[in-house]
């Protein structure tokens, strides 16, 4: 089996695994689940980790050039190898983004906008979860409910930053920095899409004008072809007309 | 009567209704009107709701393909069907935006800029009203006067976010999130318009240069046409000159 | 004397007047000058106001179409007629901007960037002055020194908005809103200039490629012209060669 | 030895000197090193300053036109001449940026993005160091650990500005203003790169279409050439066929 074929087959199961993982993580963090239910959730998350690890191993095995695949996919190894650092586990969800990337929209701009909007929504949700996970145990934490975490994530990704809520732990601050950079990217894509649309609309008008300028040139060429054809006819009649002379 | 004709006829009355609704809502929220005057305002708002509901029904009745129109206009049903959730009623004001969209400006960029500036102003006003409406009753609210609400809306839509004022209720935060996203869109449109203007100006210069490059090609073609015409004359004189030979 | 000629003559004196006004205003606000020195500064500011009023009157008198000029320059009337509202007087400094607009840079983009950078610097300075003017007398003001006002203006125009300092009076908040909008415009121009530069650089490469594609077409046309010329020569020799036959 | 050759030779040693300086400065500021170790660090920093001063002198000596070089490189004199104002010393690190500028990426856009990302990372690090240096001794300082300084620098350059931390000294505020402007530039470059990519992608599609439109023109021209060639053949046969007549 080739690697490409494996990836095609594995895509939807991996998506489902990622969603199961996200649900279990969200439930555990938001519900502060402890005891036997907490153990079940923890077991589910380890199982999803196992699936991702197996996927990594199979991919490495099937790669046409293993060394090259290993070097180019170091980030996947990192994601698989660091499951003990809880918020990092959420990085597995980039799987979801790659599917988003493929499934939506017709025009380039439509695709870009849908992709970014979905990514931003996913980022806000995952960022809120991750920050709540690491912050809620900190002694002087400000973000202690999921509602607060969502609100904080939105004010951060839009770069508004009221400052009524902010992370106080180092890991929470790293999550925040990631969200801020995403915010800049989101802003950039929104602006760029509008700019590209405007530029194109303005240029379409200009191109119609340019076509109008080129039109006479085209007509002149057509006339030239007709002229030459007439010339050849005349020449033929000249030659044919001479023998009887 | 066709749906299009109905919409043309209904447009200005609906605009007026939306403005009456906005005025009544603003008066009620800012003035904290109670008692008999409050009842009158409440009755006015219910009357405007009735007009919007009738408009929805007539539109659905006149639509060429009712099922299609229903599916494509689910958001209008939502706006009509949820009048009990007060700030959502303000969504009816999107009617105003659609009129703005049509009436202003000559060039594409001029239209976009006017549209966005008006939308931003309307959003700030409506956002301030909505937040004041839901916040002023909350026990630990920070936004309790219309002046504060306006100031907060401006700092939010520009993504400055001092944090001296911010909503504390879930609905207030949703309104805030909508304003922030509008802020990003406004920023995007402003930037994009300037970028498109700059790109066009720079390209105009480039196109003038390109025209200069194409000029000799055009001249050569013209020369070719003259040459061929001369050729045909010569050929004609050749044929006509031979009989006397 | 035509209006245009008057404007050319009056430009530099008006610039000087605006600078004198700015210096007097800054001195009065920052130095909290009172007593006889304060009276002198106040007198200076009224004198500059007088000069602007005279300029407005002369312009109106010399305008080819007075009614049209009056309608199109309502903002100038506003600036002249409202000198009692202190921060508004600073609007006269837009005179400085119009000079900036003319004097700097060679390329379009260079002009835009210089213009915006200078405007931003002037806006920060004038915004800080205006806010300090209206805030320093307020009972719960946060901005009470010029250093604080400058710092606040910078955090506002860049849309960072820490919230350590913010205006608390209605007029101060209006000045802040103006600064925020300027911030969005500044951000927009910076981004747009970079985008336009990038687009142009990428297109220059594309155009070089397009020229390479058009080159053979041009060569073909040239060959065609030569061919036709040869044809005519041959034809001429055909006709001239026949008589001796 | 020419100046250009000297610069080529001196580049990597100067880079190394800048890095040594950065390490010594960071160690001193973050570690609050005092006593004999502090003296060693201070001596190292003075030594790096000496190397930069010598480099400036050699450059001035080797310049083809010394007066011109002096005027155009006033900022380098400033950096060398003001070593007593500690944070300003960090400006020497612009040397690092010029190397970044040269070494990375293949396409224009790739180079721009890599350059900006690296500059932003360097700016955050250096800004955090500089602010910590000037703030940690202030009585009411908020930024007193390197972790806090880094977190503050990130919230500032992304223009989020929570306001949980902010500089309180004049020099700290100047460093902050520089970071904010960098933030606007970073945002601008990110947006512009996306916009330029989108515009190019959209135009590539348009250009393919334009080529399709030009194709018939090209075909017609080809046909014309064939036609003329046939014409000449016929003419030749006409002339050659007549003598035997």
From TrEMBL, chains A, B, C, D:
* GO annotation, biological process: action potential
Q: Which UniProt keywords apply?
A: Ion channel, Ion transport, Membrane, Transmembrane, Transmembrane helix, Transport
Supply one GO CC term from the record: voltage-gated potassium channel complex
Asked whether the keyword Nucleotide-binding is assigned, the reply is: no
Q: What InterPro entries does the record point to? A: K_chnl_dom, VG_K_chnl
Query: Where in this chain does the record put each Potassium channel domain?
Result: 123-199
Can you tell me where the transmembrane regions are? 12-31, 43-62, 112-131, 143-162, 174-199
Which Pfam family is an annotated match for this chain, by its short name? Ion_trans_2
Localization recorded for this chain is: Membrane
Name recorded for this polypeptide = pH-gated potassium channel KcsA
Which species expresses this protein natively?
Answer: Arthrobacter ulcerisalmonis
Lineage of producing organism: Bacteria, Bacillati, Actinomycetota, Actinomycetes, Micrococcales
